[in-house]
């Protein structure tokens, strides 16, 4: 944003302080942009979510066009577009902009029988419009089902390896206990530098599992060290001081040495592409016309193995699994994207319109529209997904709830979501024996000023050792079953159906505090 835009945002935030109310656990001073958080007796606190998104909330750049493709009559345009992407991918990276350039697709309906891959750093795929008019818009029309349930566009190196590439000799133990929200790590052996990417791992031990009652999967098999993924955090080192490192975003779970010995290593990101964008186009999927057809392309756009990436002003329609999905990706922004009318059987594993899958971290979804799916705004990455912000977005005609989906996702923020749901709109809660031992599906997660406008509900429950928060939300907000799926303790709920919560947006206030 420009300075003028920031001034406008801040004056709106400031104007809001002349009336309204504040949470007892998040105090806000609009003049200094300062937020002060109160920890509970267990050490739980609302963490800082503002590091999510492309360069932790930086403006998405407008990258100049370096190549333009005209639509031509063809049975399959996959190779035609891929060759142009590969050509842009072979241009040098401009060391000022950090991009190679944008490929512009002129209007038309492009038949895609395969998968388009954007593997190189610094490449933008840009259409001419996201509508359905062949004359003015760019439509990638996914035809056929070979291979079965494929993804139409994959951005990144395609490796979903959860950042396992360690730089030799850097792995070392974390020697301090960390609480949720902390960002100082004491290491046994210091070898880190400012600018390094590190991965902090909290291995799954029986002692940790015991502290969370083995996930409370209600009759399903309890979580075990074999099937419950470790909690991992991908972070940037921002300061080094003696045997301490400061990391950009906080940890979203407490890391207690008496339960599990955490370790940290430098991640070798030389093979991780960055700065990939997709914008201004429509991805549509051909189906057989029946609402439960499953033999068609399954996900419109996936980011797999990438960082500092974005998609904006796009429409995804008729997918089966997701409109936009992330795995092994950090710092992604989805801005102004519509994902509607999925086509699949309305059951498990389908219709996750906006999805943060395994090792999706610091991902920001904003100004989005979801409709007609099951889990519209969802973390499906278990304990490897965290730092997921869903902001200023809408939800209509949902067949299941937005939620942390399974097995201890942490640090989810639902902020200014407007849902027309008549049933459970949002759950940061226990899912018991749903799926395969889903149990506690979200921890240290927040619903802030979420509005459920059609009689639907929000479930906020308290996981053992952690907390979930529902502050200033509208609708029926509770920890009770029903509408919750299982009987558990209620989470922290405050100011339900009370207008004038300050700050109006937690995410915006946190970002503003950091920028000033
Ligand atoms: C950008 O910087 C890299 C590494 O410093 C260098 O190899 C490359 O030639 C530069 N590219 C341009 C276009 O100057
Ligand atoms: C490199 O990027 C900068 C900043 O976007 C721009 O001003 C400059 O013209 C670009 N250089 C080339 C050779 O395209
Ligand atoms: C929220 O989203 C709407 C629709 O995309 C947009 O017009 C508006 O500017 C956004 N508001 C904020 C505060 O970002």
Give the N-terminus to C-terminus distance in angstroms: 13 Å
Q: What hetero molecules are bound to the protein chains?
A: 2-acetamido-2-deoxy-beta-D-glucopyranose
The proportion of strand residues reads: 35-45%
The tally of beta strands, per DSSP, is 38
Helix content: under 10%
Shape: globular
Helix segment count? 4
Alpha-beta classification:
mainly beta
Average residue pLDDT = 96
Low-confidence stretches: none
Taking the sheet with the most strands, its summary is: 28 strands, parallel
Nearest-angstrom radius of gyration? 22 Å
Description:
There is one protein chain. The chain is mainly beta and 516 residues long. The protein has a domain at 172-266. It is 8% helix and 36% strand. Bound molecules: 2-acetamido-2-deoxy-beta-D-glucopyranose (3 copies). Residues 336, 367, 392 line the site of one 2-acetamido-2-deoxy-beta-D-glucopyranose (NAG).
